[in-house]
Known about the structure:
9 helices; mainly alpha
Amino acid sequence: MNPAPGLFQVPWQEYVPALADGLLRSLGYTAAGFAGAVVIGLGVALLRISSRRLLRIPAAVYTELFKNIPLLAIIFITYFGLASIGIRLDAFQAGTLSLVIFYGAYLSEIFRAALLGVHPGQREAGQALGLGPTVTFTGIIFPQALRLALPGTGTMLVDLLKSTSLLVVISAAELMSQAQLIASETFRALEVYIVISAIYFVVCYPLSQLVLRLERRVQAGAPLSLRRYRRLAQARALLAAAETTSYSEVKP
């Protein structure tokens, strides 16, 4: 039994540029895919809670369809399937589109549940104050729904980052593709994939902890936008000034 002496023999210093490029591409796929999935997910969620059945049905079909298809199958369809009918996408376009379609379906469910989680009385209160539907949604409903959707959305972000490894099947030049090339050159598959797994952990674990910390801050009442943070600071300053003034008037 002599596994230790030969466990790490890959000259990693020669592969640092390739790994860095692969990691940056993985982060690029994550950023583009998550941004697109949030837009699609929010749009589909709004359609699903619409009072019009004609809008609810297509949105429900989209959600149920892509929630029950493996991401790998969607990647094959966008890259190889569309090419067979004359629609040719490069690896970045096909990979990003696959991530948007797949995670858009899951995020739509998270956003729908969050929007329905806001008490109906909040909308009625906005109407009683004379606010229009758009102002009621953007100023009252959406901020509260955002707090409810944050935990699930953060989990989807980390999961999406890990799922970029599936893009290796279309040679997307992301981190797992680089690992495959290194393993084929060095024939050190165990060592290579252990190191690549460690890189994914180093990236994903801080991200998940950051999301968890943000959730705790939001649950504690921290504002989600800079505008609300400034308003809260101004309100606190006014309250402090009022307390100081009342104390000086009472003091003989």
